[in-house]
Amino acid sequence: MSISYIPRVTQLDSVQLDEQVEDLFKQLLFNATKFLEPGILQPILPELELLLRTWIFKYSLCNKKCTFGQEMLSLKYDTTNLSKSKLYWYYGYTIGLRYLKDRALYSLTSNIKVQSFCTKLETFQLIGDIFNFLRFIQTGKYPVLIDFILGLELTADKLAREDLTDLSWTRELLWHNLIELIGTVVSLVNLFGLKRKLSNTLKYVWWRKHVRSIGGEKSPTMTINTTCACCSNKPANKAADPEFECPKCYFNGNVITKFSIT
C-alpha cells in the first residue's frame, strides 16, 4: 500500500541528493581527465555535461520512474500519471534547456542579445522556482517546478525517514532553500540599472511636486542675471550640455524661456 503523505523535508532531501549525485559524477569525470592537456575538454564541456545528465536520466527516471535521490529515500513518481510524453517534456526542461543555455554562453559570449536573453530566461525560471517553493511549503506537493507543471506526484511504499521529529531542523531546511533561491534571483538583477530608474522616478516626482508648490502656473525665465543654485555662477554647464540638470533641484531647464540680448 502506497503512502499518500510524504514529509516536505524528505522531498527536499531527494532534490538535494539529486544535485549531489550529479556533482559526484562530474567530480569523477574531472578526476579521470585531469592528466589531459589543459583546454582539451573546455570547448566540449557543455556536451560532456549533457551526456552525463542524459546517462543519469536514462538509468534513473527513465528506467526506474524515480531519480537517484528519490530512490535513496524510498520515493518514486506515481506511474499512473507518468507517460512517455511527460518524460520527454521533463528531459527537455531539466536537461535540454540547460544545455542550450550553457552552449550559448560558451559559443556566443560576445553576442549581447543572446547573453541578455539567457540571463532573463534564467531569472524568470528562478522566480518561478520561488513561487513554486512557496506553494510547496503550503501544500506539501511538487517540490520542483517541473513536477508541478507536469502534475507528477510522489508516492512511497515506506518512508526511510518516518521517525523524523526535529521540527526546528525541518524549518531551518525550508528557510535555507527559500533564501538561497531569493539570493540567486537578486544576484541576476541589474541593480545599477534599477537604481538609476528608481532615482529618475523619484527625481521626477520630487520636481513635479516642487514646481507645483512654488511655481504655480508661471513658467521660469532665464535672464542675464540668472545664476546657478549650486555654485552661484552663470549656467555655463547648461550652455555646454543641453541636458545638464541642477544638482540641487534636478531641473534641466528644457521648458524655460531663454533670455536673448538683441
TrEMBL record:
Its EC number is 2.3.2.36. The keyword Hydrolase does not apply. The keyword Nucleus does not apply. GO terms for biological process: protein import into peroxisome matrix. InterPro entries: PEX2/10, Pex_N. Its main location: membrane. It is found in: Peroxisome membrane. Pathway: Protein modification; protein ubiquitination. It catalyses: [E2 ubiquitin-conjugating enzyme]-S-ubiquitinyl-L-cysteine + [acceptor protein]-L-cysteine = [E2 ubiquitin-conjugating enzyme]-L-cysteine + [acceptor protein]-S-ubiquitinyl-L-cysteine. Residues 18-201 form the Pex N-terminal domain. One of its GO terms (cellular component) is peroxisomal membrane. Keywords: Membrane, Metal-binding, Peroxisome, Protein transport, Transferase, Transmembrane, Transmembrane helix, Transport, Ubl conjugation pathway, Zinc, Zinc-finger. GO terms for molecular function: ubiquitin protein ligase activity; zinc ion binding. It is an enzyme of class 2 (transferase). It is a multi-pass membrane protein. Belongs to the pex2/pex10/pex12 family. This is RING-type E3 ubiquitin transferase (cysteine targeting). It comes from Papilio machaon (Old World swallowtail butterfly).
